[in-house]
Amino acid sequence: MTEAAQISLGRRLAAELIGTMALVFVAVGADAAAADTGGAVGTAARAVAPAMMVAALIYAIGDVSGAHFNPVVTTAFAMKRLFPPRLVPLYWLAQLIGAMAGALVVRVLLGSAVEAGVSTPHVSQASAVGWEVVLTLRHRIVGNHAALAVGATIALCGLVALPLEGASMNPARSLGPALVTAQLSDVWIYVIGPFSGAVLAVAVNFVVHGSTENDREARRAAQGEP
Questions:
Q1: Are 114 and 103 in contact (CB under 8 A)?
Q2: 32 and which of 22, 85, 113, 127 could share a cystine (Cβ 3.0–4.6 Å)?
Q3: How far is Cα 197 from Cα 5, in angstroms, rounded to an integer?
Q4: Does residue 106 contact residue 114 with C-beta atoms inside 8 Å?
């Protein structure tokens, strides 16, 4: 691997780490702030804030890493042959480290209130898994031009499902605070559900749109090339 390629990979991983950290800080921080203020931060704000952060991050650093910030998105792009499979574990690692860092910052700022940011179902576990599968069926859109669409979709899903099961849609977002607080009993829901939804999304996309592996624009967007 050339020095230029190594630098490029380092920048990509740094962007994924920082972006996931910012996303988890906002998502977990909003939940923690709601608990710490007795509900002054409402459900709508908790749903919209992470969505706005994702949209902003796509605009800001989407041309560096592809703005995945979610192991499920990385996996879906790899399954669609838009992203190199060899980079998937590295992206996952960067995203998990970023998620834990974001949750740790919330813990430093708000103490035990960070526990409110742990993804927790308020319906049965089976229902929560089903919700996560359905909410994650949305991986057609890619690239900087899709920032508003991605953000709006995340906000809509959050407004509907946040009171029911947390509307994670992102294993890193749930694993970060769960690991920081050592509350791991329900975290499997937010790993199995989104990954299952991603597999179904790729299958549906193939049936409806056909193969996307020859879509140069989509491949460049997924890999963070300008």
A1: yes
A2: 113
A3: 32
A4: yes
DSSP state of 161: H
CA-to-CA dists, residue 138 to 67, 101, 197, angstroms: 15, 27, 8
Residues 6 or more apart in contact with residue 170 via CB below 8 angstroms: 23, 69, 70, 71, 72, 190, 194
Distance from C-alpha of 176 to C-alpha of 120, rounded to nearest angstrom: 13
What does the pLDDT average to over 197-214?
81
Half-sphere exposure of 78 (CA within 13 A, CB side): 17
Beta-carbon contacts of 83 under 8 Å, excluding residues fewer than 6 positions away, are 66, 74, 77, 219, 222, 223
For residue 102, the one-letter residue type is G
Instruction: Record the pTM.
Output: 0.91
Q: DSSP 3-state assignment of 66?
A: coil
If pLDDT is split at 50, 70 and 90, which confidence band does 139 have?
A: low
CA neighbor of 24 nearest in space, from 179, 172, 193: 172
Are 110 and 159 in contact by the 8 Å Cβ rule? The answer is no
